[in-house]
Amino acid sequence: IQDFLIAKFLRPDLLLFLAKSDKDFFLKRGIKVKVLPPAVDNTKFCPATKDEKEKIRAEYNIPLAKKIVLHVGHIRQTRNIECFIDVQKIENVQAVIVGSTSTPKDGYLKDKLIGAGVRVIDEFIPDISKIYKMSDIYVFPVIKNTAAIDMPLSVLEALACNLFVITTRFGGLVDYFKEDYGFRYFDTTEELITLIRSIDRAEVQNSKKIENFTWDRFTNEIINACEELV
Predict the structure, then answer these.
(1) Most buried pick, 44, 121, 206, 215, via CB within 10 A?
(2) What's this model's pTM, rounded to 2 decimal places?
(3) What are phi and psi of 125, to 5 degrees?
């Protein structure tokens, strides 16, 4: 309905989308569309040194021997984060969820996660990049298409920090990222658990995947797109 109203009544000169999902709908109605994935600050979100990781781990009192499996996002049922209860059961794993402070959280779900041993951080963190840098694996378990933006920024931030990424085939992720050793898709909780167990601490090259997601690229593409309109 929202797409129909935009196409019929607003008819903008240019529509910018994070992914390709709605592109054809507007192109067929004569509206110019550009797919423009979000940008990530790769000077702030970058791989941690060994000393940096150790220092942050000590700050949060998480042993170095633990494999940290992270998710950053709203603490809601729609995010499918209940699967972290099963993740926490994996030997030598510490599941960590950082919840948004700007949106209401599901108190029952939060208590359930904490009761299972999941570390839930729901206070304001001045520098969220520190949480990525202390972690090993980033999991994006969202299935419902209205529960996150088409190109989840947290996945880009995790890649920039060179974390292993395991994600559902959500939104525009499949348009930009193919599976390899450091980036895997999953469909079921059982598959997620198997993937986490199979990952060792070998070096990945995920930080290279966001070379085309910089703010310089983002601003240049917007400027070029606007100039083409005049």
Answers:
(1) 206
(2) 0.88
(3) -115, 115
Which tokens is 61 given?
């009192």
Question: Three-state secondary structure along 51-85?
Answer: HHHHHHHHHCCCCCCCEEEEEECCCCHHHCHHHHH
Question: How far does CA 77 lie from the centroid of its chain?
Answer: 17
The mean pLDDT values, 10 residues at a time, for the chain of 230 residues are: 49 74 70 82 93 96 95 93 97 94 84 97 93 97 88 95 97 92 96 94 86 87 80
Which pair of structure tokens corresponds to residue 6? 């935009």
Spatial strand order of the sheet with 137-140 comes to 119-121, 93-98, 67-72, 137-140, 164-167, 183-185
pLDDT for 22 equals 67
Spatial separation of the C-alpha atoms in residues 91 and 102, rounded to whole Å? 33
Say if residues 156 and 210 touch (Cβ distance below 8 Å): yes
* Total residues found in the chain within this entry: 230
Residue 100 φ then ψ, to 5°: -65, 140
Q: How far is CA 119 from the centre of its chain?
A: 18
Handedness of CA 45, 49, 53, 58 (dihedral sign): negative
CA distance 97 to 70: 6
Reported as type and span, the H/E element at residue 201 is none
**Which of 118, 124, 125, 134 is CA-nearest to residue 81?**
118
Q: Determine whether 163 is exposed, middle or buried from the number of CB atoms within 10 Å of its CB (0-12, 13-18, 19+).
A: buried
